[in-house]
Amino acid sequence: MAGIYIHIPFCKQACHYCNFHFSTQLKYKNAIFNAILQEAEARKSYLQNQIVETIYLGGGTPSLLSIDELNILFDILAKHYDLSDLKEVTIEANPDDLTKDYLNELKSTAINRLSVGIQSFFDEDLQFMNRAHNAKEAAICIQLAKDAGFIKFSIDLIYGIPKKFGGSFEKNLDRFFELDVDHLSAYNLTVEAKTPLAKMIEKEKAPAVDELQSANEMNYLMNAANQHNYEHYEISNFARDNKYAIHNTSYWSGKHYLGLGPAAHSYNGESRQWNVANNQTYQKAIEKGDAYFEIEQLTEIEKLNELLLTGLRTKWGFDLAHIEQLNSENKSDFNNQLENYIIKNKAHLINEYGFLKLTQAGKLYADNIAAELFLEGNNN
């Protein structure tokens, strides 16, 4: 089973915190969309006839695509890939795009799950982040989607937003729980280099992100989600009734996926590759048949380190049976490293029946813990 990710690199406006690849020059949208269709056909052999279980439209803002464009895209995918057991087709959408008419038309496509970038239900927060929607649109879009017949949703929220802008993460969570949605993705506001937010902080036009506030809000989130019967199944993701994001879960479990569009990544178990993060370069290369991506062959240790990084982020943890693939020297190094780490950091990491798992306290430091356990030994 495999997945397909499609990157739609366009937005109405630039969010201050975002460092994903996108453009606000919508006049090029048609040309890039056509290039993505060409890439979908050209790379049909990448997944080696595996059944495609999930399709995910991310960005950027995929909800800028028209219904006709979506149907053309799905027709191309159905022609060149095995979609006989397709379980989940997700589109990321901004609240301002989810009008009654668009939702009703969207229901007629292959889309069966919405990932809605609400981020906050407060206008002060939304204006600070330069989001394209307002609090009213954030409040009504989920009900409009339910009225249109959608039953699978995820909502995105951001914590760590400076409190001076008027919002309250606790009240945002209260609003989320009131909406009766099965899935939540919550992300810490981070300051990425060269973003408008980084420049605002540098020029003292915005306060720096308070790490203590972020940690406190994440702890509040984990406790509140548990009280409302949401399972914390991945560092940034919560679900009730096992309504996990199938596509994203496949990333964390090492399944293969094909990425289409500028800046999209692909993985086939042996190598990782990524498309050029430039719309015009991508388009021209597709049209000329030139190379438009780079490839990195993964060593056995790099594969193991990736499984460690992704596995620790999940409720399932990292299966220690994976270390059996290593030679004796590297296996010994890893076991010694792990034993020493657990002795020093019992509050953060546990070995539960052969699976490494983070404690609630450890979830605040997931990537750092994985990095400390990474192997750098013999790569044979």
Description of the molecule:
There is one protein chain. This protein has helices spanning 29-42, 67-80, 100-106, 123-129, 135-147, 169-178, 196-202, 211-227, 246-252, 279-288, 300-312, 328-344, 366-373, and strands spanning 2-8, 52-59, 88-93, 113-119, 153-159, 183-188, 231-234, 237-239, 256-260, 265-267, 271-275, 293-297, 318-319, 349-352, 355-358. It has 380 residues and is of the alpha/beta class. It has two domains: 2-251, Alpha-Beta Barrel (TIM Barrel); 300-373, Arc Repressor Mutant, subunit A (Orthogonal Bundle), CATH 1.10.10. Strands 7-8-6-5-4-3-2-1-9 form a nine-stranded mixed beta sheet, sandwiched between helices. A three-stranded antiparallel beta sheet has the order 10-11-12, with no helix packed on it. Strand 5 (153-159), helix 6 and strand 6 (183-188) form a beta-alpha-beta unit.
